[in-house]
Design a protein that fits this description.
globular, 6 strands, 9 helices
Length: about 230
């Protein structure tokens, strides 16, 4: 989240310069919002987005788009799937395709140091998983993870949530050559299009800004997203 904050702000400003109203939401337990990250839950984040969505609608009663990055893309898709928000289009940046895979990677990160220390990383990971199942908050890289965040997210997958009647803007960055979408993303997009979905998808050259050591920008992603949204709305 900390690595992504600058890119999100730059994209919001780019849209604002084109006349769009943009709300950036710090979900509870993150950024300047109330509470520690250990208090963040999936249902709480869900409610935060609904609140912000309703508020923005009173300020700008025009077609609205819901924009999600990484795990936020999975949350956004869940909101649309449950009819909690009525969107003109769903904008997905580098979406997490399955919550289970995402948190599996998080737990591997949490136990990686155990390998260096000579401990059994698999046993440590199993211990963390058991704590979550027992309703106990665990800590990863200094951040508390609440079971009510992890467990619901693990039950969500993008392929199950996305509705072919919802217009999608699906953008990714890659440092690979040739520039192309992730193979798993291509598969999901193809299935959606076969069902009649309108999907605006593209990959652009750029860094994995959410995971780089230093704060990094991906200007090609901002340009592509701004151009796509402006074309769709105008």
């Amino acid at each position: 989240m900390n690595k992504s904050r600058r890119m999100v702000a730059l994209q919001a400003r780019a849209l604002a310069l084109h006349g769009f109203a943009v709300a950036i939401v710090d979900l509870r337990g993150t950024g300047d919002s109330y509470g520690e990250h250990s208090a963040a839950t999936w249902d709480g984040w869900f409610a935060d987005v609904v609140c912000a969505w309703s508020w923005l609608g009173t300020l700008a009663p025009v077609p609205r788009l819901l924009w999600g990055l990484r795990l936020g893309a999975l949350l956004a898709a869940d909101l649309v799937a449950q009819d909690a928000v009525d969107v003109f289009a769903l904008v997905l940046w580098q979406p997490i395709l399955a919550g289970r895979l995402f948190f599996s990677q998080i737990l591997r990160y949490a136990t990686a140091r155990q390998i260096v220390a000579g401990s059994d990383a698999r046993m440590e990971r199993k211990l963390l998983e058991n704590r979550l199942r027992e309703g106990i908050v665990i800590e990863v890289a200094g951040y508390g993870l609440h079971p009510a965040l992890v467990i619901p997210a693990e039950r969500r997958s993008l392929s199950d949530l996305l509705d072919p009647t919802c217009m999608l803007v699906w953008h990714e960055t890659t440092a690979l050559t040739p520039v192309a979408l992730n193979a798993a993303s291509v598969d999901i997009i193809a299935k959606l299009r076969n069902k009649g979905a309108h999907v605006e998808s593209t990959a652009v050259d750029g860094p994995s800004f959410w995971a780089t050591q230093e704060i990094t920008e991906a200007p090609n992603l901002i340009r592509a997203t701004t151009n796509t949204i402006e074309r769709l709305l105008r």
